[in-house]
Amino acid sequence: MALSTEILFQPVTLGAFSLPNRVVMAPMTRSHSPGGVPTVAVAEYYARRAANGVGLILTEGVLIDDPVAGGYPDCPVIYGAEALNGWKRVIDAVHQAGGRIMPQIWHVGEVHRLGEPPNPEQPGLGPSEVRDGEKVLVRAMSHDDIRRIVAAFAEAARQAKAIGFDGVEIHGAHGYLIDQFLWEKTNRRDDDYGGDFTRRLRFALEVVRAVKSAVGSDFPVVLRFSQWKPQDYAARLAETPEALADLLLPLKEAGVDWFHASNRRYHEPEFPGSGLNLAGWTKLITHCPTITVGSVGLDDVSWVGANATGVDPLLERLQRNEFDLVAVGRALLADHAWARKIREGRINDLIPYTKEALNTLN
Ligand SMILES: Cc1cc2nc3c(=O)[nH]c(=O)nc-3n(C[C@H](O)[C@H](O)[C@H](O)COP(=O)(O)O)c2cc1C
User: Does the Cβ of 179 fall within 6 Å of ligand 1?
Assistant: First the structure.
């Protein structure tokens, strides 16, 4: 018999923050916001998940104010009256449906290359230069660039609070700008922002401090981080729990309230000798509220297709208090009623994930 899903669907209080349940929609880029402005269809898409039992929505990556923050078509931004009004519509719709919502603020860093939209005439910005012969595809950030981008993250968070979001998630994962500074392969600097791990961590700490001071103590600042990178699934920032503590504890001290530990498969142990996943270790080390993610409700990590499954192994980990919240990505793309069906035990009614789910805003 399947385990009771009650633990997933009870209201939860994290510090001063309460949520209707522990189900979180994972941030997923959808490329449906022409000109950077989230449309009515985007508001309806998120509200549909909230109305069907998702407690907290983490939006798709939302670009901070920099001409080369983006690297994909039609991503939303979080500056300028039109986009902010679009977001207000999204926030109202989700709140009316009983959910809470935080934007994921994002700069892609060296993923943007000279010659690519949205501003093809400008090279990208990253920790280190990337060239093609004589051509500079990505410019190594100067100290002025660093100050400006840190300030843009802070301003994005300030706007998020001003227009009614419930918190803010900083995208520090998956090989984008903040992660590029953390990872030795993409950070080849020899100044105070590169070299040993403490120096590579400095940019992330400055972003977190600036964001926290922009929003104050009553507005949760979430940091999403990952070991894996799209170009190297086996990459690691931390080989041991001690190294993970060296990464996370300074970030907590700088102002991170919750951590979002991104795994591709939540059921994989992070280090030998323990069944804990990355979120489990993160909670143990930091004592902060922690979100897990990765193949929840699906039998495969593939982008092309995966079958729907139940969530018993996840419930067992929740019962052991290994993490606080559970983010769901592809299963919620495929099936906006995923949370409701899981709550009602309707496993056979779940819609499997296919790549067609990527193209629609159902
Ligand atoms: C279409 C799509 C877009 C994504 N975009 C983002 C994003 O903007 N920011 C982010 O941190 N992760 C992004 N991800 C990763 C998801 O948040 C999640 O970590 C990943 O899909 C694993 O969870 P799942 O197995 O439940 O899908 C994206 C995933 C998908 C499928």
Answer: no
Sign of the CA dihedral 132, 171, 263, 117?
Answer: negative
Determine if ligand 1 sits within 6 Å of the CB of residue 107. Answer: no
Strands 135-140 and 130-132: antiparallel
Whole-angstrom Cα Rg for the chain: 19
**CATH tag, 6-358:** 3.20.20.70
Question: Candidates 23, 25, 28, 309: which one to mutate for ligand 1, based on the most atoms within 8 Å of Cβ?
Answer: 28
**Closest to 326 in 3D by CA, of 273, 280, 272, 268:** 280
Supply the DSSP symbol for 127.
Answer: S
Beta-carbon neighbour count of residue 198 at 10 Å? Answer: 11
pLDDT per residue, tens digit, the chain (362 aa), is: 678 999 999 999 999 899 999 999 999 999 999 999 999 999 999 999 999 999 999 999 999 999 999 999 999 999 999 999 999 999 999 999 999 999 999 999 999 999 998 889 999 999 999 999 999 999 999 999 999 999 999 999 999 999 999 999 999 999 999 999 999 999 999 999 999 999 999 999 999 999 999 999 999 999 999 999 999 999 999 999 999 999 999 999 999 999 999 999 999 999 999 999 999 999 999 999 999 999 999 999 999 999 999 999 999 999 999 999 999 999 999 999 999 999 999 999 999 999 999 999 99
Each domain of the chain, given as residue ranges in start order, spans 6-358
Shortest-distance Cα residue to atom 26 of ligand 1: 329
Alpha carbon distance 227, 221 (integer Å): 20
- pTM value surpassing 0.90: yes
Instruction: Indicate whether residue 296 lines ligand 1 (CB < 6 A).
Output: yes
Give distance in angstroms: CA of 174 to centre of ligand 1: 10
Query: Does residue 79 carry a catalytic annotation?
Result: no
